[in-house]
Design goal:
The protein is an alpha+beta fold and 89 residues long. The chain is built from two helices and five strands. The chain has a five-stranded antiparallel beta sheet. It comes from Aromatoleum anaerobium. This is DUF4160 domain-containing protein.
């Protein structure tokens, strides 16, 4: 479960073998002990929760970096290490 980005106290991870649970490209965002999964395709929350303001930051970041996230997802699904992605600034 590599960390691919960090910003505003949020840690973004991409689970290599977590496609069984959600069945679509997604990331995990952790913030102060809370965890939520977000769809890469549309930014929707798939499971869990983090504070609304932080979730909106994650969704904005997904919108900006969707192409890179999808490329990282393909790497992860094929057992390769994903690349780090620029944080939200």
């Amino acid at each position: 479960m590599p960390t691919i980005s960090m910003f505003y106290g949020i840690i973004i991870s991409l689970y290599f073998y977590d496609d069984q649970r959600h069945k679509l490209p997604h990331i995990h965002a952790k913030y102060q002990g809370q965890d939520a999964s977000f769809s890469i395709l549309d930014g929707s929350v798939l499971a869990g929760e983090i504070p609304v303001a932080k979730a909106r930051l994650v969704q904005a970041w997904i919108e900006i970096h969707r192409e890179s996230l999808l490329a990282d997802w393909e790497l992860a699904v094929n057992g390769e290490k994903p690349f780090a992605i620029e944080p939200l600034r």
